[in-house]
Each structure stands twice: as C-alpha cells, then as structure tokens.
Design brief:
Blueprint lengths: L3 E4 L6 H13 L16 H10 L13 E8 L5 E8 L4 H5 L4 E5 L8 H15 L4 E7 L3 H9 L3 E8 L2 E9 L5
Antiparallel strand pairs: 1-2, 2-3, 3-4, 5-7, 6-7
Length: 177
C-alpha cells in the first residue's frame, strides 16, 4: 500500500513548500529535485516557473522540459519530499542530474519515503515514454545509492566531476512494463 502520492504544486501548498525550504535551510542542506525552490524570490514566482517548465517554448538557459511534483502523504497531504522529472536529457543532465532529482525533508528520512518517491516518479517516466531513466548521485551519498538500487538501478559508471565522484545508474523501464 502506497503511503505517498505525487501531486502538482498549487497555491494551497505555499505554506508547506516554504516550511519545507526552511527545514533544509536549518540543516544547511541542498534541496535536490525542487526546481530551484531554494533560491527564488517568492513562492508565486517559483510556482509560475514550474508550471511553465514543461512547455518547450517557455524554456531558456539550456533547460529541458520538466515536471516538479510534491510527494505528500495519502491521508494527511503532509509534504514529505519533492521530485523533479526531466523529460529528456541535455549535455549537463547526462553528466550530473539525470532524468530525476529528488529530496526528502530531514525530519522524514530513514522511513523508506525516498524509495517510494522514486518508484512513483518512475511510473511518471513510463507515462512520458522514457524507456531508460538515468539517476545520478554523489558517490558518498550512500542513502541515495540505496534508494536507486531499491528501484532496480544498475550502476553504469562512476567518475570525477568538478571535484566530486558521481555515480550513474540506469533503470530500464521496458522490463517492468
């Protein structure tokens, strides 16, 4: 039974999203999979940007179409994490970033939520007709590597990029169809 569902951000989630950002700031952590929530001037500007991020004609700065989701609990709609799905890869994402970025708030970690979120994101990738999904993580991010492996990720390569060892995992969605 799924504990989480992925929903599109709406104005009703403003307080939850700002609280999510505040929790990452308190722990001085990077927010992955949030499409820039950490550095926007306002929630409204972020919401407008992500609502247009799947439209090719709205993209600039070498961006690709993407969809950002909130991972909320099925019963209470409590914001657990965020997921950003890139519909295709460009040169930057082929190196660092991949098709999916995600994060779980610190207060909700080590409960299996990341694995569930990635699984839900992979279902979204299937509906976008992405046959093979690239998911990357820093080599020292053991929790993220475990999450990817729990979702059938196969390590393809590890390499140094801008001073950090990056691991590339591929998940073949054609086998799970």
């Amino acid at each position: 039974m799924e504990r989480l569902k992925l929903v599109l951000p709406t104005p009703e989630y403003k307080a939850a999203c700002l609280d999510y950002r505040k929790e990452f700031e308190q722990f001085n952590e990077v927010m992955h999979g949030t499409a820039g929530l950490s550095h926007v001037e306002s929630f409204e500007a972020w919401l407008k940007d992500i609502q247009n991020s799947y439209l090719e004609e709205e993209l600039t700065d070498d961006r690709v179409p993407a969809t950002t989701y909130l991972a909320v609990t099925v019963d209470t709609h409590h914001l657990i994490g965020m997921v950003n799905i890139r519909h295709r890869l460009n040169d930057v994402l082929k190196t660092s970033g991949g098709h999916i970025g995600y994060s779980v708030r610190a207060s909700e970690r080590q409960r299996g939520y990341a694995t569930e979120m990635l699984g839900l994101a992979l279902k979204k990738c299937q509906s976008l007709h992405i046959p093979r999904v690239l998911v990357t993580c820093d080599q020292d991010n053991i929790a993220s590597a475990k999450t990817i492996k729990n979702n059938h990720g196969q390590l393809d390569q590890a390499f140094m990029h801008e001073g950090t060892m990056i691991e590339h995992y591929w998940i073949d969605l054609t086998e799970e169809a």
